Amino acid sequence: MPVQVRASHRTRSFETGHVFAPLGWSVDARSQPLQPAEWGDSAYLDLRLTGEFRLADALNHLYVLLPVLDDAKHYWVSTEEVDKLIRAGGDWLAGHPEKELITRRYLSHQHKLTRSALARLAEADDTEPEELDNAVDEAGEADTGRAADTGRAADTGRAADTDRAADTGRAADTDKDQHQPLAVQRREAILAVLREIGARRVGDLGCGAGALTRDLLADKQIEHVTAVDVSARALQLAARQLKLDQMPDNKRERLTIFQSSLTYRDDRLAGLDAAVLMEVIEHVDPERLPALERAVFGFAKPATILVTTPNAEYNPHFATLEPGALRHRDHRFEWTRAEFGAWAKNAARNHGYQVRFLPVGPEHPDAGPPTQLAVFEQGPKP
Fold first, then answer.
1. Each residue of 257-277: b (16+ CB within 10 Å) or e?
2. Mean pLDDT lowest for which of 82-96, 184-198, 250-264, 341-355?
3. Helices (H) and strands (E) in the chain, counts
4. Is 354 within 8 Å of 360 (Cβ atoms)?
5. 127, 155 contact by CB (below 8 A)
6. Cα dihedral: 315, 317, 318, 319 (round 10)
């Protein structure tokens, strides 16, 4: 719906454009003169914002960004403010070009809280990983994400496609999809496949800070979620994001969460309808991938396995990546579509699966999609 907002704020005009324009707002910021006029302009602006949004989205933008423009909170800022920021900005802040400025100001420049918020926002988008990592490192953060084989920092993003993934391999390509963070598109693509196959017991293997786990628990079709990660720090973040200490009993009974390495057999992972390895394999040293295949495809052997990984061919289309750079410093590799296809087909053949491939995110005519998704299903198709 069309939305128009008028406010008076003490800020600089260029900041209003930097924080509101990337979200689709038209910004008209004009200086307000002092009285008498010969004293010049005041520090305040007459700010007018115009845009077409869902009312809930517009209110979330204003809730976060107006205090950011003021850069002055008049109450005690505690860890609860991090939760408020993630709740209001989780669907758009992770992909915002000024997310570090916004996060720092919203949290009153408290370094510890800023580090925590950036680590959690890292689960929501992976198109600007290097900048996020630098901000986190400078603030002293050690482990922002997930890993499959080591305790080191893992992937900064996870997400998916809004429409149902189909056997034809086509993904939705609407304007709405184009403006969603890639992490959101990736999670939605995975959920679409899980609904398609009717999965009831699902494993989030390499769950990181729990963004996908949260979405799985919100899907009433899914009866039980098993979430695991090798990183103790990632599991702490997941517990906080999922609010385990406040989770209702009926929801908590649907979740099992524990530490586990995907390169070793773990009998607790048996009996799953589907297992998801979302942005996991690229964190494993190539020589350790056969061990992961044996543990997941061979021993756990769920009926369906979903694996996503970056498409290296798409990397030149990320403006924030230097030529030849990987999307995350902990990535051991990033595969082309041909390389991922060769690995997936070999893993399927060795362990009795059929595999199909789906694109996630906007497809480039030559480079393909930013994320590639493989769906492994046991046995031949009927």
1. beebbbbeebeebeebbbbbb
2. 82-96
3. 13, 10
4. no
5. no
6. 130
CA distances from 239 to 113, 214, 232, 249 (A): 17, 10, 11, 15
Specify whether the CB–CB gap between 338 and 312 falls below 8 A. Answer: no
Cβ pair 311, 182 in contact under 8 A: no
DSSP bridge partners of 354 = 377
Which band of pLDDT confidence, cut at 50, 70 and 90, is reported for residue 2?
A: low
- Least Cα distance to 289 among 353, 330, 332 occurs for 332
Structural domains of the chain in order of their starting residue, each with its CATH number? 2-121 (3.30.1610.20), 175-378 (3.40.50.150)
Q: What percent of the chain has pLDDT over 90?
A: 45
pLDDT tens sequence across 243-259: 999 999 999 999 999 99
Which has the closest alpha carbon to 199: 236, 225, 170, 165? 225
Strands, sheet with 224-229, edge to edge from the N-terminal-most edge strand: 255-259, 224-229, 201-205, 274-278, 304-310, 371-378, 353-360
Ranked by mean pLDDT, which of 179-193, 311-325, 337-351, 367-381 comes out on top? 337-351
What's the one-letter identity of residue 156? T
Q: Is 7 within 8 Å of 47 (Cβ atoms)?
A: yes
For 229-248, letters b (16+ CB in 10 Å) and e give bbbebbbebbbbbbeeeeee
For 20-69, write each residue's pLDDT tens digit. 888 888 888 777 677 777 776 666 777 788 888 888 888 989 889 888 88
The pTM for the full model equals 0.61
Q: How confident is the model at residue 138 (pLDDT cuts 50, 70, 90)?
A: very low
Question: Residue 279 and residue 195: Cα distance in Å, rounded?
Answer: 20
Q: Please give the sequence-ordered ranges of beta strands (E in DSSP) within the chain, or none if there are none.
A: 2-10, 26-33, 41-52, 201-205, 224-229, 255-259, 274-278, 304-310, 353-360, 371-378
Better-scored residue on pLDDT, 147 or 254: 254
For residues 334 and 316, what is the distance between their CA atoms, to the nearest angstrom?
13
Tokens for 88? Answer: 């209001």
pLDDT of residue 42: 67
* Secondary structure of residue 80 in the 3-state scheme: helix
